[in-house]
Give the backbone structure.
Amino acid sequence: MVDEASEHKAEYLEDLMKQLEGHRKWVQGQRGGRPADLAQADLSGLSLSKAVLRKARLTGACLIKADLSNADLGAAVLIMADLSASDLHGADLMGADLRGACLNGANLADANLAGTDFGVGSIATADPMVRFTGKSAPTRRTELRDADLSRALMRGAKLADCDLTGAELVDADLTGADLRGAILVATDLTGATLTSAELKGAVLSGARIDESVLAQLVELGVERRAKLLSVVDRLPALADLHRLWIESGGSEGQRLELELADLEGADLSGYDLSGASIRRSNLNGITLRGAVLVMADLAYCSMIGADLSGADLSGCTLRRTNLTGACLKEAVLKSVPIVGDPDRPWPTNLQSACLVNADVRCLEAEGVLLSYADLTGAQLNLALLKGGNLTGAKYVRASGEAGE
């Protein structure tokens, strides 16, 4: 079960296997069993598929890239555990305590998360001076950015204030779930069940929903339009400071950095926004004709109907951005050479972006990342597709037949 080819020492793996076997016997009521204490243990990269870890103590454990597929983690204590990029598909996490856990990029497809607690977590520090200095124990909100929760059973799950940016909740069962204050920016809720769910204060900017989910939100009295901070009036001044930042090499002015902001309908045509960071924001209907967005970060934004015609998007990050009906005609999407590493250029990133009915007949392109992008009904040309990564992309052939 444990990967012997891992980077962990043989003695450590042997001891771990004994603990896991003892815990399995304890769970199943067999002689010689005893509960495992794996608090703050390093289990990164290990193969623990189908492991029996029910009620196990895994507080603060490192499980980065661990294979926990189909594992039994029911009622396990995973407070502040790091499960980044871990494989938890099909795992049983019913009633588990995941407060403050990091699950960014984790695969939780088909997992049972009913009654799981994802709230803000805290963990005692190992520093003995804390009790004398009055410092508080480390805390953080649970992060599920880009996590795959497709078809996950999350009935009654406690997800208040959780960060679910870009997560896949397709066909997930969120009946009675507590999603108050949750960040659902660019989250795919297609086919999700939200019966009796609590969504007060949740941020749904750019979330992908279908008619069924929309009807449920209306029934719940949830306002889909996010109440984000409007910065449209301040944009010219912020853009000028950013220009000064570029021209001075960062010694003057200020880089344009916005998050969860409302820029709907703004006109920034011709502006140089190279290196700007505008993430998880509402940019619906924004006009950026001829703008320079080289190496800018626009990930997780909603840019429905945006005008990016003639813009320079070289090296721009548009990961999971909703560009439905947007115009990128005559835009430039080239890779940008990295200083000190010219053999590894930085490409324009449209991974998992929604380009439904968009005009992407660009002027120039080079190695564009289009993996898992939705290109249904989009107008494309060879300049865009040549050398691009289209792994898992959804598109429509000329005959009208859908393909992937």
In short: Residues 186 and 207 are 4 Å apart (CA to CA). The first helix runs from residue 10 to 27.
